[in-house]
Structure formats: structure tokens, C-alpha cells
Amino acid sequence: MMNIGLLGFGVVGRGVYEQVDKRSDLHISRVLVRRDIPEIGAIATRDFQEIVNDPAIHIVVEVLGGLHPAYEYICAALRAGKHVVTANKAVVSAYYHELTSLARDNGVALRCTAAVGGGIPWLVNLERCCRLDTVEEVCGIMNGTSNYIMDAMHRSPVNFDEVLCQAQALGYAEADPSADIDGDDIRRKLVISANIAFTTLLREEEIPMFGIRTVTDEDIAAFHERGLVCKLLATARRTPEGIAAWLEPTLVDDNALEAAVPANYNLISFQSRYLGRQSYFGQGAGRFPTASNVTQDCLDIAAGKTAFYAPSGAAQTPRNESVCHAYYVRTAYSDPWLTAHTREPMGLGVLTDSVSVAEMHRWANAQRQRDSHCFIAALP
Ligand code: HSE
Questions:
Q1: Counting atoms of ligand 1 from 1, which one is nearest the CA of 186?
Q2: Which of 12, 41, 89, 121 could form a disulfide with 63 if both were Cys (CB 3.0 to 4.6 A apart)?
Q3: What pTM value is reported for the model?
């Protein structure tokens, strides 16, 4: 029997509690809460020390979210010789090197399968792929909330804020949903996936991103007209210059697998030398899907699995100069760069010739200062 100290009793914490409650091999002996929760009775505590200093607790499950105090709690638990399971992509992405080193040095497990893809066993399968094969690319739809919004917008003209509220009510969105629609949440998942896939160490801040905040019904209509579907895709790829990594709205053919991904579902793929392309589809957010991966991590630890998904790698800056494709660009203020790169009109915007991801995102970042409503979407 493995005793668990559960940190947090929100959407995911409640799910873990309910799943573990039904089992005889795992037991939740303490729950760290911020407010009274009568249904869990005497095992609730507001004092983390009661968990970290309890020698009977084997696994600390962190589902508080946010960087602090999650980081401090995870470090303290690892130093105290406790295994840690977390669904917190923000903390794993920001402190990847520190946390994986600390777990290794203390001979305990750090597992975070639910941090990428919610209920999809993506990281565990990426780990299996990497131990035999060479991964060339990881990519896909890694955020349930933004997919929920894009899916709704493609089905019928809808109010962006209304659909976002629905995603929040369903427990898909982050506490601050701008992380979902502007890309920060996806960037964290991309960092964790790429670090494991390529044995490297990327920094969130260095990965260019463009979200879906400014997409309009007119944009979607122009995409429909050409048989295209817009999805927010993240990609990290081996190139001769190093690891390329970026995320942006992307126009895929309406027959593509990604185009068919509905609601809060994610579709995450790798491309490897032996396997070719392999894709993982499932619910990327929500209470029980996410809790399932947390509980599965606890079961893996109970079965003796303590190694992290991949060894630590060296820090690298993403190299996006050699990845080139066309873009749909809609802006109220054109400029000489855009005019020089325009191939043809498209809806209320233009289609560019092939430009590098690095160059496009540099331009788009500057353009957003002049036109906060501008929108770009890649057409690979
Ligand atoms: N807010 C995230 C999403 C939750 O919508 O995908 C799962 O990481």
C-alpha cells in the first residue's frame, strides 16, 4: 500500500481523490487544502509540513498548479525522499533541470504524465519510443481549451468569449485562460515533450508563439472557402542547425487528422526513424481524464518505476531560421516587409510567400504593437 499526500483539491485533485478512494493499493492519507472541505474530514490539513514530515507518506501528488508554492513543495518532498507526481506543466517546464536533478540525486521518482495531454499517455509512450528510436519531430494539438474554441468557431459563427466561458465551466481552462488562448500553456507542454524527445533543455521564453485571441469569423470563412481548418499547433523538430520549436495557428487540409479533432480533445504526434508518424488522441483536459494519468503515475511508482522519462540534456536555443512556409496574415496596417512577401489576397488578409518561422514571428511580434488585432496562421 502506497500512502499519498495530495496537494490541492481542485478540478484534478478531486478526481484523483475519487479514483484512489476506490483502490486498495493506493491510499490518500493527507490532503493539503486552502479552505474547509467537510467531505474529506480529518485528513485535510492547511500545513504542508504535516505532509512532508510524515514518514508514512510515500508519494506527494501536486495538483495545485502555478509556480509557487508548488515548486518549493515539490523540492521539499523530493529532498525528504518522497516520490512526486505532478500535473503541473508550468513548474516542470520552468524548473525541468532542477527538479529532474533533485529527483535523481535523492533516488526518488518524479512523474508528470498528466502535465502534457491531460489523460493521454503521451509522455510514457514518448519515453518508450526514445529508448529504442530517434525522434525527429513532436507536434500537434496540445491544449483542450483552445481546440474547444477553434472547433466551435468552425462549426458555426460563435462569440469567442462565450465559448471560452463554456470551456472554463467544463474545467478545461487554466485559472488564467489567457495561458490557453495565447499559447503559454502549450509552450510549457512543448518544452517538456521536446526535452524528453531530444534530450535537451529548452526555455519557454525562447520559443516563439502566436495564439488564437484575434481570430475572427471572417478569417474562418476565408479558410473554409479553401477547404482549410485552423488549429493551434505546436512543433519541435530536429534540423541540421539544432532544435526548431514554435507554436502558431496552422491551416490544415480539411482531410487532415488534426482537422477532425473535436471539443477538448488533443492529438499529439511524434515522427521517429523506425515508427514513422505515430499519433495519440484523447481528452487533453478535464477532471477524470487528467486525474487518470496522475493515478497511473502513482501506480507506476508503486510498481517500482523511479527513472524520469529521459536523461537530462544540455540547454539549447530554438533554431527556427531553416523552417519555412507560407502564412495567412490579416492586419489593418501593411508595411514594406509584408508587401514584399505578399503572394496573393486571401479573405480580409493576404497569403505570403514562403518565409522562415523565425522571421515571421519577429515581424508578427513587432506588428502586434501597432495592430493588436492582427492575426497570422501558417500554411505549411
Ligand atoms: N488548460 C489546459 C487545456 C488543461 O485546456 O488543455 C490541460 O493541460
A1: 6
A2: 12
A3: 0.97
